[in-house]
TrEMBL record:
Keywords: Cytoplasm, Repeat, TPR repeat. Its main location: cytoplasm. SMART domains: TPR. The keyword Cell inner membrane does not apply. It is found in: Cytoplasm. This is Tetratricopeptide repeat protein. Belongs to the Rap family.
């Protein structure tokens, strides 16, 4: 075995774990990149860079994640691996999305969609439409988000990709939950849970399933059941050290404890949620936590603390207003999406006809 082969054997399981939501710390991944550079093999270096991108994204260092994913794209192309090059570009889009850079995310995905169309690549086409649905979700157009995600589900049903199917199902659950279509959300979560109990391994998604179930219980006024599910979700995120997940679940737990009259636990959860959200630059979570902490302070008669939290809310809201205005999908972008959807549907129909003809033969 050559030194390059030995390094690849070491890198491969770490890359798979990173892609499935459990990366090594960024320092470890950066060392892998430094070692990969010494071999001068573009595919190996690209794989290490994507692994580093996932590691940075896991801890909220999104600019560093984007730089790593962006650097991997041409290296994979240089190595002749167009599939992996598109995958890295799709991940770059997701990193822009996580940073709230929705125009950049859409532009990245639409660029990759041109390659997807040429290669008749339904797998990455599905991932692109999954991402487009996420953008609509972020814009609070949950109906459009659900339509794109249901389209993604139609496409992925024809592929042998339980991992991608699981990801789509969890996003459908989120869309349906926000529209209070709880039965649809629970069906999607049940199917996702079956996949996670079988061929799919992803701790982030395991926690998301538990978290959405907890949120549904909360929406129905079933607060003890909500607390149980959210506690389980937090335990998974804690073990996996997922900053984004912990901050969101702690916010939901704070609300739940408050409804149950467990005010000290509520305050502890919300304070932790605010701290973690600050580390991950999740201003929306920080604002909601501060609003709830102000309410708790008023309820216990600590008006000085309530005023401090109210000032924090106003500061966070002012920061949101100072940010660029929310993305509105222009006519040109909408038309590109429409054409892309049509092409993917035609390719999906073509494959179904081929499989039907083969079965008859």
């Amino acid at each position: 075995m050559t030194p390059l082969d030995a390094f690849r054997d070491e890198l491969r399981p770490l890359a798979v774990a990173a892609a499935n939501g459990s990366p090594e710390p960024p320092a470890v991944a950066a060392d892998l990149v430094a070692r990969a550079r010494r071999f001068g093999d573009p595919a190996t270096l690209a794989c290490a860079l994507v692994t580093l991108g996932h590691a940075h994204q896991h801890v909220g260092a999104l600019a560093d994640a984007q730089a790593a994913f962006r650097a991997a794209v041409p290296l994979y192309a240089q190595a002749g691996d167009e599939h992996a090059s598109v995958e890295a570009q799709v991940e770059l889009g997701y990193s822009h999305y996580a940073a709230g850079e929705y125009p950049r995310a859409l532009a990245t995905w639409l660029d990759s969609l041109e390659q997807v169309r040429e290669r008749r690549d339904l797998h990455h086409g599905t991932r692109v439409y999954l991402g487009v649905g996420k953008v609509y979700y972020a814009l609070e157009d949950f109906g459009s988000a659900l339509r794109y995600h249901e389209l993604a589900l139609q496409l992925v049903r024809g592929l042998d990709s339980p991992k991608l199917c699981c990801e789509v199902l969890i996003n459908i659950a989120g869309d349906a939950y926000r529209q209070q279509h709880f039965d649809r959300a629970q069906r999607a979560l049940a199917e996702a849970a079956e996949l996670l109990a079988g061929p799919v391994s992803n701790h982030v998604w395991e926690a998301e399933v538990e978290s959405y179930l907890g949120l549904i219980h909360f929406a129905r006024g079933e607060y003890p059941a909500a607390r149980e599910k959210l506690d389980h979700a937090f335990a998974i995120h804690q073990e996996n050290q997922n900053l984004w997940g912990k901050s969101h679940v702690l916010l939901a737990l704070g609300r739940t404890h408050a409804r149950l009259g467990e005010l000290e636990r509520a305050e502890a959860c919300l304070t932790s949620a605010d701290e973690l959200a600050g580390q991950a630059r999740l201003d929306n979570v920080s604002r909601q936590a501060a609003e709830l902490l102000a309410d708790l302070a008023q309820r216990r008669g600590d008006f000085a603390a309530a005023l401090r939290y109210c000032k924090r809310v106003h500061a966070l809201v002012a920061g949101e207003h100072a940010a660029p205005p929310a993305l509105h999908l222009g006519r040109q972008v909408t038309e590109r999406l429409r054409r892309g959807v049509l092409r993917l549907r035609m390719e999906h129909a073509r494959r179904r006809l081929q499989s039907t003809s083969g079965a008859k033969g």
